[in-house]
Amino acid sequence: MKLTCYNRHFPFVAILCLITSSAWGQGQKSIEWAKFDFAPFFILQGPYKNEGTGDIIYKLLQQALPQYKHHNVLTNYKRIARTNIEKTTICTGTFKRKRTLKLYHFSNPVVTLPSHKLHYLKGSRAEELINAAPKSLHNKLSLEALISTNPDIKIGLLKQRRYGADINKIQQAYPQQFKYWAAGNGNINVTEMLRKNRVDFTLEFPSVSYYTNINDKPEQLLKRQALTENHPSLQTFIGCTKSPLGIRVIGQINSIVDELKTTPDFQNAAIKWVPKN
Predict the structure, then answer these.
(1) Which numeric CATH code is attached to 116-225?
(2) HSE-up of residue 13 (Cα within 13 Å, Cβ side)
């Protein structure tokens, strides 16, 4: 098969061509790219199908790594953890956590996301509590102060999600105020709990509520409030399972990702679902 060493999006194609010609000589290897039912990072259906942040960035990375066969697969963390990494190499967008560090080799940072914010329904009692609560100069609210002054409130969270050390301390100090749901369509589940008044608040990424509000009725809009206990942003990475091929792919991603991040397609994907506030 003839290789073309030109791509208008990537001025670093000389590096790619060296990698590619070597790989073709050895036969094409396959990579499975793990997707999750988690809009707007991966959008599986509807008018914005495949227009999620992760959808687009996967596509750009796959185009930049033509020496491999790429397969997008819908999966979850448990299935990935059970994969025979000697037979299958899986790559995915992920955060650095204790459990993910055991499973993946990590790339350099890929996308920086706004961190979790406190979410609630427009027009609800929760909105009244937020409006009445004192804020910092940067319009941030203390979750611990909100709970201590309103001990009857309920906050819905996902069991598998990690919200940061300061939020963890609050969860431990006020266990009665928190309810937990398993992941899956987790963001949808907790949103439904808000609408059914099962919980008053949840912690979620601002991009999720921004996307949800585009698709929902005006009376069901989600509002968000920044917290003093949360870091303002989170870095995401590409993680590949710990096989020899996974190590090699991560090295190749690191050789191109900084340049890739300067392209308009990548930059548009990174901010596509990020609200202005």
Answers:
(1) 3.40.190.10
(2) 11
